[in-house]
Design a protein that fits this description.
This protein is an alpha+beta fold and about 140 residues long. About 30% of the residues lie in helices and about 30% in strands. The two termini are about 15 Å apart.
Length: about 140
């Protein structure tokens, strides 16, 4: 199968997330992803895009690119907000009770669990988070 690609640029706003999810759903169908792979892609992309929308004060753009190559899904999230590596966040204490647990951190935990690998870099004034997911 030739590489199937989705490129989506959006304002970094929570209200723009449903359109992203619609585009990801259409991409998953075109790329012939399994339901599990489609769900993982949507969860990871939504979590990372929501983090930018809710926490990247000063960001004016958010780009999402998804590409299927064989049995791999490549995901790229770019934004022009302040430098921030979400992968540097400490893992949440999953053993602590709800009242004792710090707020936040579960989304990045899911990103780590659902991806084969994930990397952050700051390049040319952009935060770039890349993730590799399985198709099957």
């Amino acid at each position: 199968m030739d590489a199937t690609v989705l490129r989506h640029e959006m304002p970094p706003e929570v209200d723009a997330l449903p359109a992203l999810l619609d585009r990801l759903e259409a991409f998953a169908e075109t790329a012939e992803l399994s339901p599990r792979a489609a769900q993982h892609l949507a969860l990871v992309a939504e979590e990372l895009a929501a983090n930018v929308a809710m926490h990247a004060g000063g960001a004016s753009l958010l780009r999402v690119e998804a590409r299927r190559e064989g049995d791999s899904l490549h995901l790229l999230i770019e934004d022009d907000g302040p430098e921030f590596d979400p992968l540097s966040a400490a893992a949440p204490d999953l053993e602590a009770g709800v009242e004792e647990r710090d707020i936040g951190g579960l989304g990045v935990h899911f990103v780590r669990r659902l991806t084969r690998e994930a990397h952050y870099e700051r390049r040319e004034g952009l935060n770039r988070l890349t993730a590799l997911l399985d198709v099957g």
